[in-house]
Amino acid sequence: MINYINISLITLALVLSCSSTDSEGGSRPEDLSLNVMVAGADDNNPNGDGSGLVEVSASASNAVRYAFRFDNGDLEESTDGTASHTFTTEGTHSYTIVAWAYSATGEFINKTIEVNVYRSDEPFDTLVFSDEFDYEGRPDPEKWHHQVIPPNNGSWHNNELQHYTDRSVNSFVDEGTLKIKALKEEYTTDNSTKAYTSARLNSKFAFKYGKVEVRAKLPAQQGTWPAIWTLGANSNEIGNYFGDQYGNAGWPACGEIDIMEQNGWDKDHTIAHFHWGDLNTGEYQNSGDTIAVANSTDSFHVYSLEWDEASMKVFVDDKLVYELANSDNKPYNHDHYLLLNLAMGGNLGGEVAEDFTEATFEIDYVRVYQ
């Protein structure tokens, strides 16, 4: 998401010069206005989001073409009076932008503006979505959607043993963390009865590229399958938040990024994995790896994803778990959304302990940067 702020010429010093005053015939351009928009600029980031991107637009009466110069760069021609430029020098710097407006006979006027632009040395440093869970009660309804409709004939995929609910006993915020709680209880929905309940949350925020950080403590009980992951926002899975807003792709064509999964029988490792359908052939593909995580059930760890047009990298506490190269035939160049859930049993949960009563997947914060 890129927001822009218009820099008003009323508050900026403009230098107006003119030339070709002795040209014969035609109408000289007049009333040149110049607007500059710095990507991501707002009250908290007045010099932009760190991308260094600016967009400019100029207009003048009697003008048929325009030109721009960004600082000491080459002159850039424009027929419609718009142009964009990315400043690459790291840090916050003041730059000069000059715009020229030309008439059909070659007469021109110009204006100069100075603008401060911030260029970050970090690829992702602007927070675009977060939940610090610094409140009490239900997960923030402005940020989270409970997915509760079983998509697989009254059950969930992967042979999971639970129903997901939107009840506060299965997901709630307390003492600074989100708790997703699985319970052993008989629960019926749509004429389908299961022996366990839990919660599955969709973020109400879709994004393409960025850094995801989730600080979490995992459940210790045998048979629990916690996950931090993404799906393409064009997923057609029933009950997801976005519906068909972004398209109508099935799995795995929509793409899946498993930032963290942990199976039910090995609580000393976590899994990073990718599932996708080749966009050219439709062939199912998957790839990933595991990493040892000490005390994953006793202490919090940071599970993160760095995703851009070149690759997707999954980390635990800044240690690289797995990197997958991105490409045009993979579904990782469109919007995804984040999911948090705790499954019971199934393909990765395995056999549930006989004495199981409840388990908690605890999340300290969720942050997405671009």
Task: Give a description of the structure.
With 370 residues, this protein is an all-beta fold. It is built from one helix and 26 strands. The chain has one helix spanning 346-349; strands at residues 4-7, 15-19, 30-39, 53-61, 65-70, 76-78, 82-86, 91-102, 108-119, 127-131, 144-146, 162-164, 171-174, 177-189, 192-198, 200-207, 210-217, 224-232, 256-261, 269-277, 284-292, 301-307, 311-316, 319-325, 336-344, 358-369. Strands 10, 12, 13, 14, 15, 17, 22, 23, 24 and 26 form a ten-stranded mixed sheet that branches. A seven-stranded antiparallel sheet has the order 11-16-25-18-19-20-21. A five-stranded antiparallel sheet has the order 2-9-8-5-6, with no helix packed on it. The protein is elongated.
